[in-house]
Amino acid sequence: MSKIVNVFNKICNQEKNRISFIYYEKGKLQTKTFIDLKNDTDNIANYLLNLGVKRNDKILTFANSSYHLCVFMLASLKIGVSIMYVDILAKQDRLKNAFDDYKPDYVLVSNKTKLIKIFFKEINKIKKVINIDNVIYNKNLNNRKVEEINDNDVALLTMTTGSTGKPKIAIRTHQNLYEQLKLVNDNIDSKSNDEIVLTTSYIYVFANIMNGYTTVLPQINLSLNNKFLLNQKLLRFKNIPITMIITSPDFCLKTNNIYNNLKKIYFGGAILNINEAKIIQEKYSNVNIEYIYGATECNLISKINLRKYINHLKAENKCVLGQVVKGVEIKIGPNNEILVSSKALLENYLIKDTTNKMIDENEKIWHNTGDTGYYENGILYYYGRSKYFISIDKSKIFSNQLEQNITNNFNNINKCAVLQKNNNVYLFIETRKKIDYNNLLSFLKDNYKIYKVKIIKIRKIPCDIKHHTKINYNKLIERI
Predict the structure, then answer these.
(1) Whether this model's pTM surpasses 0.90
(2) Strand, helix or coil at 450?
(3) What is the CATH code of the structural domain delimited by 3-270?
(4) Is the Cβ–Cβ distance between 189 and 55 less than 8 Å?
């Protein structure tokens, strides 16, 4: 039987009356206990079986992150159906590619995403489009026998955003998903199940369940620039004694700190410059903040306390990713590339891709993260993305090294991005203040021997649609 299904069943039976979820729906806060979660999951599993869904069928989900989506995903795991989770912010071309590559038997939508039908020419081959908002938890359905599920059965597929390369769809078996969630739980400092965790990163909802934590789902769209609206939605949860937040940096940058009981924040998804890191630290000055470095293939690689991260940037102009977490090994490969190995490592993609993997003499699989850095005295340091560097006199200056140094030394520059195209160097700077261009040019000459550079002042550095502090170099290249 699937380990992860067993864990979910066990935790629901153990915790029973403890609250598993808090979310806002129908004009008020809703709560669900762990036994509610189990009953709802069993009910939807039965609904899917009565609908004709079979083991090894495939469901593409294109619905808002919600309690109900979690129930559908758990129910799918229980009956051996694979889930293709597509972010509702995915562009139409990526959505269509996911559909064409995955060839789902069923599509799960919500009222907000039901126009998905117009994207697909072969929608008639879908057995059914299920609207999650129209499903009633019907406990009177005939119970259907559930087959035993294996750890090797495919559980979940997720699409990377492709902000720095080609999008790809990573495959997680039941075993993969179990190991990845276990990796997260093994590296969360608290072992108490009294945690009440606000979570905006949806995969961590399942890690919360495995730990017996209460999950608060704010269901906010962080791609919106309307900070007032975001914060108004969060006020619904002000009186809940939230003790932990698992999120991305943009949540901390865009929203207010209204949490009197908050002790810990875990966030990751982008490399912060000193300005961004300081804003977050000052906003949550009494909170222990752990800054996470990870990847799709290994969701957690290293972590560092945010104060230490800031101090390293100030003192040494170095971006420190911290200590490698329990259950993960790293090494530095050719061209300073960061390689990672772990039991939680994902090895397969929907469209075969072996370019980012290597096997050593001990038959251990290492994944190339696409990042560069160095590893010294148990601490991982970051240079930048492997494909983005400036080549000067046959030496490489990686993007993040230069960007961090500029924001450290020029207070008027909020954020910057550097790249090279056709041997020309371009520096994009995000600022609304006056810049001493001569001083900036002298800095580049004296420190990096960059004698010719085009400086482009820009209102906003384009970032990834999902991780809104992660620079999208592909979009910048289009502007050249």
Answers:
(1) yes
(2) coil
(3) 3.40.50.12780
(4) no
